[in-house]
Amino acid sequence: MGWARDDAGMTDTRRRCWWGWGNEGEGFSDEEVRGLGAAMGERLGLDGSLRSAPDVASLVMPPPRLTPPKALEEICSSDTLSRASHTYGKSYRDVVRGLSGRMEHPPDVVAGPRSESEVASLLDWCASVGAAVIPFGGGSSVVGGVEPDVGDGYAGCVSLDLESLDSVSEVDEVSLCARIQSGALGPSLEAQLRPHGLTLRHFPQSFEFSSLGGWIATRSGGHFATGPTHIDDLVESMRVVTPSGVLETRRLPASGAGPSPDRMFLGSEGILGVVTEAWVRVRLRPRWRAGGSAHFESFDDGAACVRALAQSGLEPANCRLIDPLEALVNSVGDGSSAVLFIGFESADHPLDSWATRAAELVLDHGGTVDTESWRAEDTGADANRGTGSAREGSIDPAAAWRRSFMRAPYLRDALVRLGAMCETFETAVTWDRLRELRASVVAATEGALVAVGAERGFVTCRLTHAYPDGAAPYFTVVGPARAGAELAQWETVKEAASEALIAAGGTITHHHAVGRDHRRWYERQCPPLFAEALRAAKKTLDPSGICNPGVLLAPAP
């Protein structure tokens, strides 16, 4: 399993990497990894040794505990590669275990339904035999959301891979909406909308290897820094197959008729059922773009400018603030200043005045505009997909940042192969608490690095999303890892950062989801009565408790 349509709408037969990010052969080559080790080895104290993943044929797994019924045999597999590819997501912890060949909780069966009726049949079978079932989109979870670690109370576990449900089934060009199956990965989805001159405008970092259903289940956030960036704002209605039956919500632009049923499934992470399709709000592809980059002496000065932009009503598509160290690491600055990328885009009108006002706000807050990068442009009626920054090939540092950003998961895998720890944490907090939260998380994480013997490591921060009432800080931690102790080190650092951000008033996740890794902090953040209501809803929709047990809620006895 592992095909999707590429950007040209053709069938893509590349094989997905089973232990790390992306497709096989598309990450850093061994030569590039060694070059990275030479560049960063001294700073991080790495010895230059290079780890490689074991051959998939050498992996040792327990025999499957489940045998699918004859009617489902054609869409089920229990071969080693299928099971290995669905054992983990793509977090640092997952990559470490994959490189070590540790298949701790492989699924017994990987099922690939081709229709909604086959999804229902699979759920019926799992319920009848007492097997857990985990919906699987692109498998890009970094929080343990797709790992079949369901405990001993089940007869087995089925990973329900929705990749075959990948069609844009219908387009309403009058209402600017599209009906799309949940297994459609980002490139496939956009390729099918492109002939209509439309885009969903939802581009998370995992865009290439994540699906519409996964975005809905995890309340995904896209690249866009302001405006409707969360998938919540783009869903008009959906169909969900639950163990108790099929549920479909009504297509409406808005409604005041009681609590929204869509909201129940947005962020439900597969514990209530399987999203099979959704009507989503699309828009005309952008033609006009404007913006550029700016520099600030301090991160706090840049954050004040971001707040002004978020509260101005300008709604920039890109408004990303990077601290000096992260700018240096990503070759978009010399480490002496924080860098802010600002971008606007529209399918309707030129944006010169928007960019001019944004530049004025930069100057008002003590920043310096990079005049070489600042521009307004008409990309033409056949505009390329963008994220609000200048197009590829531009001298704008934002283009260099975007290339670095999209390569970051491959860089993470390369660092892990060199023996480094590389993890990220993200949150959201109101503006009045931002400075305190950032300082607290950085201090706690740096202290944890020292505690685990990784004092040569470092912590960076950027603001990925901006709202009138707050922002989303995103932290990256890199440090040396001790062979055999990587997961213990990770757990110490993870706990320190998570405790600090919760104590400072942030959320345990802004867009990475809860999964299994964040559940204990989510339990502290979630009002107890709401948790009881959620558990009651799960009991109604999933009476046997087979749907992704252990995510969001502790498994029922």
Give a verbal description of the structure.
Helix content is 32%, strand content 20%. The chain has 557 residues and is an alpha+beta fold. It has three domains: 1-285, Uridine Diphospho-n-acetylenolpyruvylglucosamine Reductase, domain 3 (2-Layer Sandwich), CATH 3.30.465.10; 288-384 and 386-405, Alpha-Beta Plaits (2-Layer Sandwich), CATH 3.30.70; 419-524, GMP Synthetase, Chain A, domain 3 (2-Layer Sandwich), CATH 3.30.300. Strands 14, 15, 16, 17, 18, 19, 20, 21 and 22 form a nine-stranded antiparallel sheet that branches. Strands 7-8-12-10-11 form a five-stranded antiparallel sheet. A four-stranded mixed sheet has the order 3-4-6-5, with helices on one face. A hairpin with a 5-residue loop joins strand 1 and strand 2 (11-12). Helix 3 crosses helix 11. The two termini are 34 Å apart.
